[in-house]
Amino acid sequence: MSKSQFAISNDRIVLLIVVLAIVSSVAAADDEMDLLWKDACQWEVGSAIPSMRAARDKLIAKGAKSLDYIIPGKLDTADGLVIRAIDEVVTKVGGEAVERLLPCLESDRPNVRKVTASLLGKLGAKEAAPRIAKLLGDPDARGGALEALGMLKSTEAVPQIGELLATAPLERTKVACIGTLALIGGEEAEAVILTYLSAKAAPVRFAAQLALEKLKAVEPLRARLKDEDARVRLHAIAALGHIGDAAAHDDLLGLLDSASAVERGFAAEAIAAMLKPEDGERLKAVLAKETDPFAKGKLEAALSPR
Amino acid sequence: MIQRALLLFIAAAGVAAAQTPALDEATMKRLGEALGDVNLSIEDLGWDKRPINDDFRLSCVNETLDHPLTLADRALRAEREFATDPAASARAAAAWLDVAAIAAAPTLDASLVRTVGLPSEFLGPVQSLYHSWRTAEALRQAALAPLSDEERDLVKKHGPKLYVDDAEEDEAGPLLAAAKKIDLAKLLEAEVVLADAAALARTWISNLAGKQIDSTRFEQDGVSLEVGGPGPDSHSATLVIDTGGNDSYTGCSWVVDLGGDDTYRDCGSGLLACGLIVDLAGNDRYLGGDFTEGGAAFGAALLLDVAGDDRYEAGQCSQGAGVFGIGMLFDLAGRDAYRGDRFVQGFGGVRGLGALSDVEGNDTYYAGGKFSHTPLLPENFQSLSQGFGFGLRGANTSGGVAILCDHAGNDIYSAEIFGQGASYWFSLGILVDSAGHDKYDLYQYGQGAGIHLSAGVLFDRAGNDAYSCNNGVAQGCGHDWATGLLWDLAGDDYYQGSGLTQGGANANGIGILIDRAGADAYSGNHAEVEGFSFASRDTIGLGLMLDLGGKDKYTSGGKDDSVWTKSNVGVGLDCEEPVEK
Fold first, then answer.
1. DSSP string, B115-161
2. Which structural domain, as residue segments, surrounds residue A221?
3. Facing residue for B375 by CB, picked from A47, A171, A178
4. Mean pLDDT score of chain B, rounded to an integer?
């Protein structure tokens, strides 16, 4: 065999070196991204904070390169710490994130669909709302969809969310639906929420109360003060007290004469949030004849100077 | 005489407890009232706290999450079932681990061929010990029989690191998939064999204690056996019987020691083995690393110390600890001191039950000081002990059952982070103290607390007790879809808490403190005490405290003879409800 058979031209050697250099620099960059990502996904507590913060800041500064790294490669996760890192980096980079995320709503991986929906909500991608709403029928991804639709204040989705609320077997799904409706707001959402003040499961009833407080639904709540369900009445009293709107003042004052000691106590606490100077005498008179320790405590608290 | 009377009293209390509901009528009535004052009922406590499932979940965990008041029933049951009789406890453990029934131990042909001229009175005990050891080992191997050779290798290689090496949890998938096939009933049968062997060994004291014999060592089928006399001996054989003297044991698997102040180093390990120590008398010292002193993983272990003031020191997964298996420590008398790094003094890991029962004496328990709780609290140390159940959150795997029962004496419990009737991730932790004026000291997470979808109870039956926690999530606390109960039946008690304590909850948990009687004092330096909860995930948690007797003092919102509500859904009720004798 002649020596020439093994000869390689100088051009080829240069080309080989360039290719090797590119491959090794890409590998080094990948390694760098992996290391940054590992630090970025740390729990945001105690001694981990400085390295977590530095890593996330670097990833945010890398902009589109970080989006390439995260979408879709890192979206297939249910790990809360990883999701928090994704949220911060992607939402702060912004830019083309929405465009890159939209196809991920149809991913065959449930975690990807869920995380994507949530991210689109956080990015304020209103145009994505109809596609996100389709995920309400997807048990694996609906959590992310509900989160997003709330953040996007998607009023169009209220009927679908109401339907899910009525049919979902799990308490936590119902609670999430109510939370989403509270974020969306509006009369239609409010009307749906109101019906759940009488839900059997306590977390659902209380979710409805908290939602109505958030929506400051004073008039519908005042109407519930005469509901035949004692629990609904108590939720309404508590919510009105937390809202503190004086429009409910007289209704609540009337409840100081309720036959139910718990209701009297709830009313006294609610009135304390909207106290008028002239209420003092009335409260004192009620307190004078009150024997129930709970109602008594609430009346005393209402009368005590803050 | 006094000791016997005390034991009879404890036994009677146990029987009485068995015949009555855990919480008396007055407590239930007041609970209902307090809940009514925040628009809830007792039935409402059953809200869903189990958003996920896995293949390792125990029914007692689901039960105590679904019905938090059953924590009180579980505490009474633990007190009754983990007392003075290891054999009864081993059998009772089956139900806690969802094992339907334990079969009788198989009959093995395990006769000793060589007895090297042992005196006749030793022949029976040596034969019996060897036979029991062979039987227990056969059962342990049968427990692993459903696994393939590769799976058994995986368990042998990685099993010992699960829990003791923090890095292992993230890579635990294949190991857990293999370990799921372990036949837990066989390991429970092995534990019964250990307990029966211990019971039998106790009968040898009348014939053999102090009996003169020259120390003898021999082997049978590759197993070393030693018999020691009343002098000071150093033993290192697999199986040992010693009639007395201040002896030293190193790395022995099964030991029966009839007397003397002895020192044990790394003996009775239940790691991929069956380990047994029976010490009938003397002030003994137990020194061990991981999986010793009644610590088992993929195996079974029992330590029974009948008398004397003893000192126990260990690393991890020891002093009544079980992971894929059962580990128990019984100390029947004396002033004892227990010290360990973490996962000790009643610890239950995945498919495991760990129990420590100390029957008499003024005892001290300490766990911690070695493993930093980095990154959250790098200056503090993890304990994960003293009735602590622990699942593997990173591997979405439920944990087991942990029981620490101290039946008498003025005891001191000290732990740092995670401990004292508590659990983390779909587990159950129980601490019961039946008598005496006790002190409970904790840095964070415990004293009747469930942490992240988990359940824990601390039950103190009597005495003027003091509970202290520096940094919350303690003293009847449910943290993140979890349930926690601190239940103190009697005495003038003092509760000091910082952060979420004394009936507190967050992230949809339920935390309850019930103090049934006595003039008590509650103090806290944050508002989140004395019946407090945070709203989370768009809905509620519940923090509830009841004080049903005595003239009580409060610093943070509570008031004697009154009802108060706080925060999202937090409620306290203080009243006088006489205790029916």
1. -TT--HHHHHHHHHHHHHHHHHHHHHHHHHTTS-HHHHHHHHHHGGG
2. 216-306
3. A47
4. 93
